[in-house]
Design brief:
The complex is a heterodimer of chains A (158) and B (550). By secondary structure, chain A is mainly alpha-helical. Chain A has one domain. Helices cover 58% and strands 0% of the residues of chain A. Chain B has a single domain, classed as FAD/NAD(P)-binding domain. Chain B is built from eleven helices and 17 strands. In chain B, the strands form three sheets. In chain B, strands 1, 2, 6, 7, 8, 9 and 17 form a seven-stranded mixed beta sheet that branches. A six-stranded antiparallel beta sheet of chain B has the order 5-11-12-13-10-16. Chain B has a four-stranded mixed beta sheet with strand order 4-3-15-14. In chain B, α1 runs parallel beside α6, α1 runs parallel beside α11 and α4 packs across α11. The longest helix of chain B has 23 residues. Classes of the chains: A mainly alpha (158), B alpha/beta (550). Chains A and B meet through α6 and α7 of A and α8 and α9 of B.
């Protein structure tokens, strides 16, 4: 068994489609770290579990493509600002420290507020919009609000 | 390409144009009905909050598209304009598809009140406003309000609103029932000794004229109607017009210019079908393209006798752009109010449309349509509440079903410098000069907004809300989905664009029939008034143009 998977793995990796349409793995890691702080998991799934990064990645290839250059330019900047302020990149910070850092960004105490607010907006779209756009996996937000039936969600992909 | 002549070219298959096309075809005129958008089906857009008429973050479900359209909007007090696209709020979009705004509207079906037609006589114009009376009265329009209610289909309870002026007919259908939230607000308003009643809606409450009754889905305002119960012109008068065999509905046709003859009358309309420029000769033209696009077309139709644009010799075309200064309040309740049933907006009062001390007008107040989850996340939070993080999530989870909103479309004071112009140096996809919009609310609108917001808060508190906060319209740009006023109706050609029959002054055969002709825009959603005015205008167009042909 072990040997077979060892042999199979590199082949799968080579054949697998890239995970993201527009984001690089490094950019996606920053987006996940940001969106996870914007809507964290508690007893209900948060942005990470609901696949908000897939929403952002998919929409940056479509209706939101005008924001692509901004993501490309500003994701490393906000990550670098985080490193400068805390000594760690966003993805390696504990959620509570990440939240504290982003509160400073949001208030304008650290540069990057407008870009952060754009990501807040896109996170809300991905988390609360229809699952067919790539986020809100399994209608997680609608279930959390107890409105999945009213929203016409009956399971499956929609 | 020059086409075979028709009697009438109607530009815009929305509320006004739909009615006019049907009335003209019904009277035996051959009509070409031009619509820049497409004939859309519900299945194309479905119930997608992020692509709806209210939330356009992933695009404009009902057109126009961002690729071929743009406008310029003034930023502040200086002369600086910025480009804006249809999916951005500042564009002031009203949808571009067959049915126009009525295809995806919330469908409130208000008659204006008597005083709404006599604003200047009632209040006097405040400084900086061109507040004026309409040249027609409620009594002139009343038969046409009734006609609109019966032909297109309105549900409501006649006599339930004591402020409504006399009506010649009841509603053709009973009112839609109150929701859970509506029932709570009903008793609260009664305790306040106000006069609550069910909102009249251009929605079938029961089967009517071949369309089924509302299925009460929560996706109403901003969406195409799944069951065709919403009485848009796309499912009522426009198919009826086409059925006569005399109305040719031409979609994806973009009007460029109205061509005139040596006497300054219309002789043809030049329009693009795809990239091909066509010329449609006609006996008369009806412009029903919205309060932004109608003046834009007139201003782009220059000739020797109309050097500043058709009907613009007095420089009034495009002036007095208005919308509504929506103001109100939200309240958080200890109990669930949400029942998931559309259209959700169901209860209103007209106690504060007029007679508010020191104020010129007011607004009807009503509970809101269902706020879908994204819009709720972005717009419904008490001041200072966190917009992200755990607190955001908890609010969304715990408060969504326990929140009610009451708002009123505050009637705006017309301002001469709030206007639509065209910019010769900036063209759209077809090479047509784009609209350039300047608009800033009159300070009095904000005063009225504050008052209405206060009454909304009072209503919610009486209903048992534990926390209430108000929202008052800002000074920012006017227009938007309720845009109106830019081709003012009046008796004096020096201070208006069309006469009381909606005919452009100093022409024999050009009409404007849409919200543009509204002198003032009422403290109400304007759709039914646009439809009624279209019936009124049609009545006069038929008699004037029959006479002209004889």
């Amino acid at each position: 068994m072990k040997r077979r998977s060892f042999v199979a793995l590199p082949a799968t990796a080579a054949l697998a489609a890239p995970k993201y349409k527009t984001l690089t793995e490094a950019e996606a890691a920053i987006v996940i770290a940001l969106t996870e702080a914007i809507i964290p998991a508690d007893k209900d799934p948060g942005a990470k579990e609901a696949g908000v990064v897939q929403f952002i990645d998919t929409q940056l290839a479509g209706p939101l493509k005008r924001y692509r250059p901004r993501y490309r330019r500003e994701l490393p900047i906000i990550d670098e600002a985080c490193r400068a302020a805390t000594g760690k990149p966003l993805a390696l910070l504990q959620l509570s420290e990440r939240t504290a850092f982003l509160e400073q960004v949001d208030k304008g105490e650290i540069a990057g507020g407008p870009f952060f607010q754009l990501i807040v907006d896109h996170t809300m779209q991905g988390f609360y919009g229809a699952p067919k756009h790539g986020g809100n996996r399994d209608a997680a937000s609608w279930k959390m609000m107890g409105i999945e039936k009213a929203m016409g969600y009956h399971g499956g992909h929609r | 390409m020059r086409l075979d002549p028709v009697d009438a070219v109607v530009i815009g298959a929305g509320a006004g144009g739909g009615v006019v096309a049907k009335e003209l075809a019904g009277a035996g005129f051959r009509v070409a009905l031009l619509e820049r958008g497409r004939l859309q089906k519900y299945s194309e857009t479905g119930h997608d909050e992020l692509r709806s008429q209210r939330t356009t973050v992933l695009g404009n479900a009902f057109g126009p598209d961002d690729e071929r359209h743009l406008r310029l909007v003034r930023l502040g007090d200086d002369n600086e304009f910025r480009e804006t696209l249809p999916s951005e709020g500042s564009y002031g979009n009203v949808a571009a598809c067959v049915g126009g705004g009525t295809f995806s509207f919330g469908a409130m079906a208000w008659r204006f009140l008597e005083k709404d037609f006599r604003m200047r006589s009632t209040y006097g114009a405040p400084e900086g406003s061109t507040l004026e009376d309409w040249p027609i009265a409620y009594a002139d329009l009343e038969p046409f309000y009734s006609k609109a209610e019966w032909e297109i289909g309105v549900s409501g309870k006649a006599g339930a609103n004591p402020f409504e002026p006399p009506r010649s007919k009841p509603y053709p259908m009973p009112a839609l029932p109150y929701s859970k939230e509506g029932s709570v607000l009903l008793t609260a308003a009664q305790r306040l000794q106000w006069h609550p009643f069910p909102i009249p809606m251009l929605i079938n409450s029961v089967a009517y004229r071949g369309r089924p009754g509302c299925i009460r889905c929560p996706h109403c305002v901003g969406f195409a109607c799944e069951s065709h119960s919403k009485s848009s012109t796309a499912v009522t008068v426009i198919p009826e017009a086409v059925k006569t065999g005399l109305c040719d509905l031409r979609t994806e046709c973009v009007a460029k210019e109205i061509l005139t003859d040596g006497r300054g009358n219309a002789s043809a309309v030049a329009y693009f079908q795809g990239s091909e420029l066509r010329e449609q000769p006609c006996r008369f033209v009806v412009v029903s393209a919205s309060a932004t696009e109608s003046p834009r077309l007139l201003l782009n139709s220059k000739s020797r006798l109309h050097a500043r644009g058709l009907g613009n010799n007095s420089d009034w075309v495009g002036r007095n752009l208005q919308g509504h200064a929506y103001s109100g309040a939200y309240g958080l309740f200890p109990q669930d109010l949400f029942d998931g049933l559309g259209p959700a907006a169901c209860i209103a009062v007209c106690d504060f449309n007029h007679g508010n001390p020191g104020l010129r007008g007011g607004a009807r107040m009503a509970n809101e349509f269902i706020r879908l989850p994204y819009l709720f996340a972005r717009s419904v939070r008490p001041p200072g509440a966190p917009r992200w993080g755990l607190a955001h999530k908890q609010f969304q989870r715990d408060r969504y079903k326990r929140c009610a909103g009451i708002k009123g479309p505050v009637q705006e004071m017309p301002v001469f410098t709030n206007r639509v112009e065209v910019e010769e140096n900036r063209k759209d996809h077809w090479g047509i000069p784009v609209a350039k919009i300047t608009g800033k609310r009159h300070p009095h609108d904000i005063e009225i907004g504050r008052f209405i917001a206060g009454r909304a808060a009072q209503w919610l508190e009486e209903a048992g809300a534990e926390q209430v906060w108000t929202t008052v319209a800002g000074k920012g740009s006017t227009g938007g989905q309720h845009q109106a006023g830019t081709c003012r109706m009046g008796n004096d050609p020096k201070t208006s664009v069309v006469d009381r029959t909606c005919r452009v002054h100093q022409t024999d055969n050009v009409y404007v029939v849409d919200g543009s002709v509204h002198v003032t825009n009422g403290g109400f959603n304007p759709a039914l008034t646009i439809l009624a005015t279209a019936y009124w205008a049609s009545h006069h167009i038929v008699s004037q143009q029959r006479k002209a042909q004889a």
